[in-house]
Each structure stands twice: as C-alpha cells, then as structure tokens.
C-alpha cells in the first residue's frame, strides 16, 4: 500500500503522512488510552 | 524569539504563516500556532494522561499544519483523551530541554510519558557548532555527569558569529566554518545531557523514551550508547 512520501518533496522535513504513521506506531506502543 | 537562557524560544501566542517555495512552486503553506505556554498547540484533554514530546523542527512539525504534527496525530489517534504537549523547538537540542528542566521552566507532569525525538545533528547543536545558536546553554562534562557553565558563546564573539552566519547563508562561507564535524568528546557530552534529561524526567515521576528519527550509523551509535546507560531507546 502506498502511504505517501516520507519527506516533504523538495524539503528535508517529514510529511504529514510520516507524522501520522509514526503516531499510529506510537499509540500501539503506549496503549490506546495514552496512560 | 531570543531567550537569554535557552538561546531562542517560541513566541507565546504567535500565529505564523509559514510558506516555503522554490522555482517549481509552493512546497508548503501552513500555519504554526503557538500557545500562551510557548509551545505549539496540540489538541487534547488537559485532565488526561500527560504525554510530552521533546525534539527539534521534525517534532515541532515544520512544514505541516497544527493538526498534522506528530504530537497532534498521537492526540487524534487517542481520540483527544490524553494531554499531549509538544515541547519541540526548531533548531534546538537536548541541552535546551535540560536547561528548561533544571531551571523549573518546564516541569514534567507526574506520570508523564516523555518522548525525546533525536537526530544525530543534535550533537552538533549541543556542541555549539550551529550558526543559529549563540546564547543556548553550554554543558560541560563533569565526572560522569554534565554541568551547566553558561551560554554556548560569549557575548563578545556573537557579532562575529552572526556576520559569519550571514556569509554562510549567502553561500560565501561553507557551513564547516562553524565546526560542522563533531568529535568523541562532543558525542559523549550529548549522551550525558540526554541521560541527565532522563534522570530529571524520572525524578518527576515520568517515563522517558528516546526515539531516533533516522537510522544512520551515527544515530545507531548514539542509540547504543544511550541504551548502554539504561535508557529506553
């Protein structure tokens, strides 16, 4: 599945897609409540 | 904005439109909203479990809107039930976060999950080798720990550094005039600063985790050193 580029094209920073993918992974790690 | 102790900080209450473009057109056109607390706004429940993000422009969310930053996406994926705080500042390093902790400017909420998102470039920032940070906090290794000794660069040399920075921006001087390469002592200093941040977080009852944005050999080396010091990486 294409989940979009990791770095903003012609820039050096993460794309919104990467931020969201990392957020999803982090939430799995810390639990759905965040606590 | 300039900050006498941290070198620079976000302006509380600022709302800034950030536009970047090149010959091919607009790269991004987004808004950065800074809260009254001097941190980028992140939705959530102030009464919920606290989650604190530390880092640089990557974590701040340079180039993305307020609702698309990593902390904002974590908050959204937790359905807004957590108290997510984005303490990341573009161009900063862990030395600024440590100083803010040690001076009580940014206390850690009890029970907070704290994530420091690192880049190997943060070693250079801790060492004072960036063109943009004159007055940030300088830490020196002191035994097995680190000790704050004042600003990165003395006021007398700052005009010269600012002039050199202008020449770097214009491409007249290479970035390496600021000492782009880092040495072993500076890597060790970075590690000890991050360890000290972890100690501060734990002392406040928080849980500290380091995440590296990249997986270069330099990042892997730093991650290994931090893990060897007992940090969760």
Give me the secondary-structure category of chain B: alpha/beta
Content of β-strand of chain A: under 5%
- The total number of structural domains of chain B is 1
- The overall average pLDDT of chain B, rounded, is 95
Q: Which oligomeric form is depicted? A: heterodimer
Secondary structure tally, helices of chain B: 7
Q: What kind of sheet is the major sheet of chain A? A: none
Helix content of chain A: 40-55%
Q: What is the rounded Rg of chain B? A: 18 Å
* End-to-end gap of chain A: 31 Å
How would you describe the shape of chain A? elongated
CATH architecture of chain B: 3-Layer(aba) Sandwich
Based on CA atoms alone, the radius of gyration of chain A comes out at 12 Å
Number of helices of chain A: 1
Structure summary, number of beta strands of chain B: 10
Strand proportion of chain B: 15-25%
Write the layout of secondary structure elements.
The complex is a heterodimer of chains A (35) and B (233).
Chain A: H1 16-30
Chain B: E1 2-3, E2 7-8, E3 15-22, E4 25-33, E5 50-54, H1 57-60, H2 70-77, E6 83-86, H3 94-102, E7 113-118, H4 121-126, E8 137-142, E9 145-151, H5 158-169, H6 184-203, E10 207-212, H7 217-228
Give short descriptive properties of this protein.
heterodimer, A: 35 residues, mainly alpha, elongated, B: 233 residues, alpha/beta, two-stranded antiparallel sheet, 7 helices, 10 strands, 30% helix, globular
Explained architecture:
The complex is a heterodimer of chains A (35) and B (233). Chain A is mostly helical. Chain A has one helix spanning 16-30. The longest helix of chain A is centred in the middle third of the chain and has 15 residues, at 16-30. Chain A is elongated and about 35 Å long. The N and C termini of chain A lie far apart (31 Å). The relative contact order of chain A is 0.17. By secondary structure, chain B is α/β, with parallel strands linked by helices. Chain B has one domain (2-228): 3-Layer(aba) Sandwich (Rossmann fold). Helix content of chain B is 30%, strand content 24%. Chain B has helices at 57-60, 70-77, 94-102, 121-126, 158-169, 184-203, 217-228, and strands at residues 2-3, 7-8, 15-22, 25-33, 50-54, 83-86, 113-118, 137-142, 145-151, 207-212. Chain B has a 4-stranded parallel β-sheet with strand order 6-5-7-10. In chain B, strands 1-2 form a two-stranded antiparallel ribbon. In chain B, strands 3-4 form a two-stranded antiparallel sheet. In chain B, a hairpin with a 3-residue loop joins strand 1 and strand 2. The longest helix of chain B is centred in the last third of the chain and has 20 residues, at 184-203. Chain B is globular. The mean pLDDT of chain B is 95. Chain A binds chain B through residues 8-11, 13-16, 19-20, 22-24, 26-27, 30, 32-35, and chain B through 20, 22, 24, 27-28, 48-49, 51, 57-58, 61-65, 68-70, 72-74, 76-78, 81-82, 84, 111, 113, 115, 213.
């Amino acid at each position: 599945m294409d989940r979009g580029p990791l770095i903003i094209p012609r820039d050096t920073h993460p794309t919104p897609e990467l931020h969201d993918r990392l957020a999803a992974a982090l939430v799995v790690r810390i639990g759905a409540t965040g606590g | 904005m300039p900050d006498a102790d941290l070198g620079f900080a976000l302006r509380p209450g600022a709302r800034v439109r950030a536009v970047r473009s090149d010959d091919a057109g607009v790269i991004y056109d987004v808004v950065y909203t800074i809260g009254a607390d001097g941190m980028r706004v992140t939705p959530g429940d102030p009464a919920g479990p606290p989650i604190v993000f530390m880092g640089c422009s990557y974590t701040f969310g340079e180039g993305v809107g307020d609702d698309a930053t990593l902390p904002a996406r974590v908050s959204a994926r937790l359905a807004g039930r957590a108290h997510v705080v984005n303490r990341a500042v573009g161009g900063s390093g862990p030395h600024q976060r440590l100083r803010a902790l040690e001076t009580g400017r940014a206390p850690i909420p009890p029970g907070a999950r704290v994530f420091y998102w690192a880049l190997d470039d943060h070693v250079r920032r801790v060492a004072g080798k960036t063109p943009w940070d004159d007055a940030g906090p300088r830490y020196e290794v002191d035994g097995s720990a680190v000790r704050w000794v004042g600003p990165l660069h003395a006021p007398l040399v700052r005009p010269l550094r600012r002039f050199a920075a202008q020449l770097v921006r214009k491409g007249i001087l290479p970035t390496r005039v600021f000492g782009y390469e880092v040495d072993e002592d500076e890597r060790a200093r970075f590690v000890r600063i991050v360890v000290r941040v972890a100690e501060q977080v734990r002392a406040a009852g928080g849980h500290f985790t380091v995440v590296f944005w990249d997986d270069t050999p330099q990042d892997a080396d730093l991650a290994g050193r931090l893990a060897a010091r007992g940090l969760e990486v």
